[in-house]
Amino acid sequence: MRSVLRGNANMSQSSTEIRSSKGGLIESIRLRVCYDSRGDESMEADVKVDGFIGRACAPRGASTGRYEAVSFNPGGVEATLMIFSDYSPRLIGLDASDNQLLSRSLREIDGTKNFSRIGGATAYSISVATAEAFARAKGIPLYKALLPRGPYLMPYPLGNVLGGGKHAGHGTPDIQEFLACPVGSKSIREGLKANITVHREVRRQIERRDPYFTGGKGDEGGWAPHMKDEEAFDLVSSSLETVSDALGMDIGFGIDLAASSLWDEEKRVYIYDRGGVKRSPNEQLDYIIELAKKYRLIFIEDPFHEEAYEEFSELTRRLKNTYIVGDDLFVTNKSRLKKGVKIGAGNASILKVNQVGTLGDALDFAKSARENGYALITSHRSGDTTDAHIAHIAIATQSKMIKCGVVGGERLSKLNELLRIDEDLGGCNMARLEV
Ligand code: 2PG
Ligand code: MG
Q1: Is 28 in the same domain as 168?
Q2: Which residues contact 245 (CB under 8 A, 6 or more apart)?
Q3: What is the 403 CA–ligand 1 centroid distance (Å)?
Q4: Are 68 and 214 contained in the same domain?
Q5: Ligand 1 atom closest to Cα of 328?
Q6: Are 349 and 379 in contact (CB under 8 A)?
Q7: pLDDT value of residue 17
Q8: Which of 77, 121, 266, 377 is 20 to 30 A from residue 206's alpha carbon, by CA?
Q9: Residue 9 in this model has a pLDDT that exceeds 50
């Protein structure tokens, strides 16, 4: 294997490219700094396989879990680029079809638990770009490269229609995301239309209550009104009902509390700052059960903080027909999932490739979740890019839902890609939900 480090004079400042020439394998890797939807720095990779380029740009979260891979080396994005350039020749010549091998190689090069040396954004962008380059070289779509034999089912779109927490400004709800999921839709197109209609209806109802509403949105495109949680629940619930009736379609109500952001470790309470309420773990459990019953929630993500396995388990026992979803709890990490499986903490998991760092590890996590009867929800990040890869990853991991907003270019890039995949498959049945 021959590899050459081809740096430009200013390599560490802007980008770095490594090349080798050998057929069927990773031929070259080029990295550059780019920006996500929040304007934060991110990393993009161009990987060449058999002359075909795959490109991926890493997303970034705001309400990140303690156990996630970190995006960059603590020295920042330029330092990350610089450090990686010393190691990247080791990846040239690897079999591009082997996601697991690439994953292991990236971990070996990094040598830390959370990619704090070469950066999770580097690992993400290279692993996803490699899979894309491989698919292009084969002339097949990415989802088929990742799941050659199917079966292919369409995930239900789960979209943020109103939000607060770390994704929006002062005066917005404490709860991070109020979500719509068109569980009665028969096709992805119907589902997308329904979510867009809900998003519009939510705005209409906000304006009816607040004539001074400016139309402000949170990071993911959900409306960000000056409103407490209780009012937001009533408003979203009423919007869902209006649209369900108008379309004659069942539309489910979901929430992401991102409760690690509410949890005060020292005082051992959940602090709902904007609402002026504190809840002990037991009160939080009662509160969630009350909300689930009152609003017929079908999806509850991170109702407790990221160490609260026991509470997750208790809630899962007590609520039927609801997805109890671990995001910061599992962080797309197999060993954290294993701990959850043992005590029945949750029955579903978010899948975010950049939480674990590499596509190979995320696919491995997905396999383990499915084998243990956990439903998967492939998800965007609040700071995202116009990449569409997660549409393919959701199908390839047989995810029940895809959480990626409702409107906004970096959200619709994924949703529109699902329409193209649907067309490619000649019409794809929707996934089977358990709620
Ligand atoms: C979440 C995500 C995406 P972030 O908490 O589920 O909605 O937010 O990317 O900020 O972690
Ligand atoms: Mg979440």
Answers
A1: no
A2: none
A3: 10
A4: no
A5: 5
A6: no
A7: 64
A8: 377
A9: no
Residue 293, classed as helix, strand or coil, is: helix
Q: Is 157's C-beta closer than 6 angstroms to any atom of ligand 1?
A: no
Does ligand 1 have an atom closer than 6 angstroms to the CB of 379?
yes
pLDDT confidence of 210, banded at 50, 70, 90?
Answer: very high
How close is the Cα of 117 to the center of ligand 2, in Å? 25
C-alpha 48 to ligand 1 mean position (Å): 31
Output the domain CATH number for residue 131.
3.30.390.10
Task: Show the tokens assigned to 220.
Answer: 């993911």
Please tell me if the CB atom of residue 59 comes closer than 6 angstroms to any atom of ligand 1. no
Instruction: Name the pTM for this structure.
Output: 0.95
Protein residue closest via CA to atom 2 of ligand 1:
381
Q: Is the CB–ligand 1 distance for residue 384 below 6 Å?
A: no
Domain match, 179 and 120 both? no
Q: What is the structure's pLDDT at 24?
A: 82
What value does the mean pLDDT of the chain take?
A: 95
Amino acid sitting at position 29? I
Q: Closest Cα to residue 136, out of 51, 56, 57?
A: 51
Residue 36 Cβ contacting ligand 1 at under 6 Å: no
Band the pLDDT of 19: cuts 50, 70, 90: low
Q: What is the domain range of residue 77?
A: 3-139
Residue 434 lies in a domain: no
Q: Ligand 2 mean position to 304 CA, how many Å?
A: 11
CATH code of residue 263: 3.20.20.120
Give the per-residue SS3 of 210-258.
CCCCCCCECCCCCECCCCCHHHHHHHHHHHHHHHHHHHCCCCEEEEECC
Residue in the block written with tokens 């084969």: 138
For the chain, the domain total comes to: 2
**Is residue 163 in a domain?**
yes
**Mean pLDDT within 25-39:** 97
Kindly state whether residues 253 and 362 are assigned to the same domain: yes
Pair (87, 37) in one structural domain: yes
